[in-house]
Amino acid sequence: MNAHDFTFNGIDGKPMPLKDFKGKVLLVVNTASECGYTPQYDDLEKLWQKYRAAGLAVLGVPCNDFGGQEPGSAMEIAGFCRKNYGVTFPLTEKYSVKGEVAHPFYRWAGEQAGLLGRPKWNFHKYLVGGGGQFIGWFSSRAKPMGPKIGAALDKALAVASVHVQE
């Protein structure tokens, strides 16, 4: 089993199978519109624009699990993200990311990451390789344009491009 075995619904309600991202490095982030980390939307968009051509896909997963900080409807969330942060990367419908009710991707990724690597707040990040393999995780505090995520992306994208050329 790998990340490509899971499907989210896009913010528009249409299925978004992760297998459609095969060959791309995927950064999956549980997001919220009323959080102290909400300004990370801006850096997630910059990250998406910077690495998109190299094979990165950013996927925002709105989540109301932490502090009720994502109370809006899908339309309200999409509008907020576009208007305030110019978000163009894909967003899913609102999902739970913790516990038994978590989306199956989050249950799988949580198992891969271990207890410490499970989301404890909004803007937790999972990195998935081009083959759907789990690479790692970053806490809410990790800045999308920071050196830690940048180094991990450079490495993952280099590996992904080697596999694409083979």
Give the gist of this structure.
With 166 residues, the chain is an alpha+beta fold. Helix content is 32%, strand content 17%.
Order of helices and strands: EEEHEHHEEH
Shape: globular
Q: How many distinct folded domains?
A: 1
Number of helices: 4
Radius of gyration: 15 Å
Poorly predicted sequence stretches spanning 5 or more consecutive residues = 162-166
What is the spatial order of strands in the main beta sheet?
4-3-5-6
CATH fold field value:
Glutaredoxin
* CATH architectural designation: 3-Layer(aba) Sandwich
% residues in beta strands: 15-25%
Per DSSP E runs of 2 or more residues, the count of β-strands stands at: 6
Structure description:
- The chain has a 4-stranded mixed β-sheet, with helices on both faces. A two-stranded antiparallel sheet has the order 1-2.
- It has a single domain, classed as 3-Layer(aba) Sandwich (Glutaredoxin).
- With 166 residues, it is of the alpha+beta class.
- It is globular.
- The chain is built from 4 helices and 6 strands.
- The C terminus is likely disordered.
